[in-house]
Amino acid sequence: MPAEGTRMARLWEREVGRLPPKRFAGAVRASEEFVHSLGLQKRLQKHKRCVDTLCFNSSGSLLMSASHDETVALWNLEEAVPRLMFQSGGDVSDAQFMPLSDDRSIVTCGADGEVRHSRVREGGRMFMDKLADLRYAVNKLAVEPGSPHTFFSCVEDGSVLLFDLRGKYPRKLFKCGAVRRFGFLSGRTVILRAIVVDPRNPSCFAVCGCDEYVRLYDARKISLEISKFGVPIEQFCPRHLVSSDSKRDGISGLAFSHTGELLASYSYENIYLFSREHGLYFNDFEENYSKKLPVPQTFKGPENMQPIKGVSFFGPNCDYVISGSDCGHVFIWRKKDGQLLRAMQADIRSVDCVEQHPTEIVIASSGLETDVKIWAPGDSENPSTYNYDISVVAVLLANNDVGTGLGTSPDTNPFIIRGTGSDSDSSSYMDDVDMLSSGDDDVDDDEEDKEEEVGVDEDQKDDEDDMEHMNDDR
After folding, report:
1. 3-state class (DSSP) for residue 216
2. CA distance 111 to 156
3. How far does Cα 326 stand from its chain's mean position?
4. 387-406: per-residue pLDDT in tens?
């Protein structure tokens, strides 16, 4: 009998009937051997500018990409060619397939404040409707699983909108109120960056933005609120960041697992994994009296200084965590213990989008380069793909407990490969290990001031009564 835990052992167990075929397939796809065999297999090249968002359809046969050149492409992954390419009608920060629509119904949003609905007709003809034209950027969309009609959006003014394609106008659910300290609203609103729906319970969704809290809401209860500021059913935040005054505070990426866990990627910080027991309400947290709060699983390594950064679960059972990084790499961790397994060079500067294939061990990534990269097990066409050297991990984390702080220069960051593009030598990153610094990256004061923690509510004068009512309720 082969050694226990190996791929051959699982194959033997399947052959003798100890392991059902479905469990065998899941176990094989979740194997770390597959994670370590990931390589760059295909490049999808048609866009002329950076690719801002990626989305697989439910079967994984199509990948949708939207670029800064205002084009949207639907890619056939087998042939690595676009099945359809069309003009988006404006800037696109997010694009989603609507469920149960045979991939013919697509919704997009952008920094221009527009939300659009595109329908693919026979012969590839496109019909586009403008669903909303807002004063503020619409950063992310979240479709409701199992519904071809409804989806949510988050807006930079703190608003959360519910769209129904059967109706004419969206419904404003609430504005996300900023807190003066935990449990007390300040009267301002939070700039929202991401919104995700719980796949187990489509009525529940989470939002994050330019402060330290992940807020969980139940759409069934929002309509019962008197105030315009929605009341979350739960909030999550690492203990050391509660009521932080740092201008760097903010969450740039959010993802749900199949079991309801939440991943949050903090700017200038780490990635944290929250489950129910980490909830501030669940623990009856009070800022000045609660000293004990469960510590969430932490994933260290990537640079995260952009307003929006992709983060996701990976594997058939969400056994791994993947994220882009401002150092130009895709990072992969083991979820159960936060162990960093891989760092694959995927861009000359920054990787902003990472998406998992819905059924296979395949990752799609994009960044400042104009192509989309497809990563899958097998021989790699890109010599700059390499296994993450465990000694470098140790040096990196020893130099900086929070993030990497190594910047994007090959002189200070061992993950940046010298040269340009993908033709550079993959072994050169090891030459720079001794050049690791203390991990303190310099950020200009002007750059810090550019990103505000919260946006000022345009109706702030009218919100004083609402604020007092909410604080009394808490």
Report:
1. strand
2. 9
3. 14
4. 444 444 444 445 443 333 33
